[in-house]
Amino acid sequence: MEPHPIDPAFFEQPTLALARALVGTFLVHDAAEGRTVGRIVETEAYLGARDPAAHSYRGPTERNRTMFGPPGRMYVYFIYGMHHCANVVSAPEGVGEAVLLRALEPVEGLELMIARRGRADSRELCRGPARLVRAMGLGPADDGAPLSGPRLYLLPRGALGAWPRRPRVVCDVRVGITRAADLPLRFLEKGNPHVSRPASGTLA
DNA sequence: TGCCTGATTGCCT
DNA sequence: GGCAATCAGGCAA
Closest nucleotide to residue A80 (Cα to C1')? Predict the structure, then answer.
């Protein structure tokens, strides 16, 4: 039988709680070319006006307006002149907070992911925020898309039986930023080989 | 208007 | 481990 998508109220919890709760859930994308599913194993919280590293730190702009919209939507942005990264928007409308998806464990549609990425190593398929966007067939057109839609949605922890309903989630510093780089806002599944970088070990 | 930097990746040494 | 690719947003002039 078909697993049920996550309840939309899931996205209404505070950003830090959401960043942790997203680890172990499944991202599903039914594209024209086929279906891909990835289990979220690494996230980062971006705390808006409280967080100098967040795109929304200085208020709404054309680029970041999705971050200030209602929670549960996808915020996709363009970076380094060539890459796109995907976030789950959190916090009420008007508050610019979001959770960056940093790594997935490939679950379904591996062949399609390999074709999109041009690489066959399953460990590398979704290891990194820009890589997972490509593997899942996402892009700028998905900016603002609800994550409870018919073709793009999440399945809750435990929806697919092969993975634990209560994953061991640890906390660490964020990756690739220069401002507020010491804040423990990265969440990852302990010991999972698909994360972009293992935990430093000094935080729990 | 011009310069610099960035929530990255992949290729080269 | 180092660095180029490649461009839009942000800030200085």
Answer: B6
